[in-house]
User: Fold this.
Amino acid sequence: MSFQVKDKVVIVTGGSSGIGLELVKLFLLQGAKVAWCGRNNERLQSTYKALSQKYDVEQMFIHQCDVLQKEQVAAFVSAVVERFGAIDMLVNNAGQGKVADFFNTDEQDWVDELKLKVFSVVNMINTTLPYLKKSDIASITNVNSLLGLKPETHMVATSVARAGLLNLSKNLANELVKDNIRVNSILIGLVESGQWRRRFENRSDKSKNWDEWIAEVASKKGIPLGRLGKPEEAAYALLFLASPLSSYTTGSVIDVSGGLSKEI
Ligand code: NDP
Assistant:
């Protein structure tokens, strides 16, 4: 099945791990030109090396960039345009969650979460907009979390920031319709990826292996499908929303949470 993105240019922030990396692979398979970033250059280089065994390097571009740093975002976007000459799709994926309740969240934590979940996305959008406006398939797709709708006390700042991003996505979908740019999001529950690997490494009770530990997390959370999602399951939804296959969809969200959002 073709997602009609062959030779189109996509930026995936945080493409060196987890959901972002799976999305990079899907776009490469579809013949798109893919630019991805991350902060850790070694990790970027190693994903590039691994993917270059399987995909055409003419389709691939990496650039070290912290999406929190405006100047780095500007340099990344210029480098993409220099390499590929256009930008058709932006996928804002970079990030991680902050585990802390209200009483363990200080002012700097609040600022950091809002910067990561809102300002980094604003920076990426502002910088890519002039190019997206010229595309005939333009889209912005944001990786968001169910926390934006179902706040969790142990992730208070992340929940607030995610709600802000959800609001921003809807607002921009309305505003950018005049430029033919679609804006959509996915809301994920729990996806097996870097964040969960890190939490597993730092677990206090080391008696359980990865599979046992992850099964326990799914059961404690009461996920109806009985397991965590795989990164590629989130990536499939992102590919659909970013591509022209969802050409009549804007301001929308796809829930990729294994049924965790039980409400209508
Ligand atoms: P991973 O940790 O596997 O991947 C995160 C990616 O983002 C890495 O490539 C990382 O590279 C990059 N990244 C992180 N911070 C920055 C930054 N400031 N600038 C540029 N790149 C950055 O996580 P996931 O795949 O799970 O996460 C993808 C998105 O999904 C994130 O926004 C996360 O918050 C969200 N999410 C994930 C959930 C889950 O259960 N997995 C649940 C809810 C939301 P590097 O470290 O080198 O910068």
In short: The chain has two domains: 9-191+230-256, 192-228. Residues 107-132 form the longest helix (26 residues).
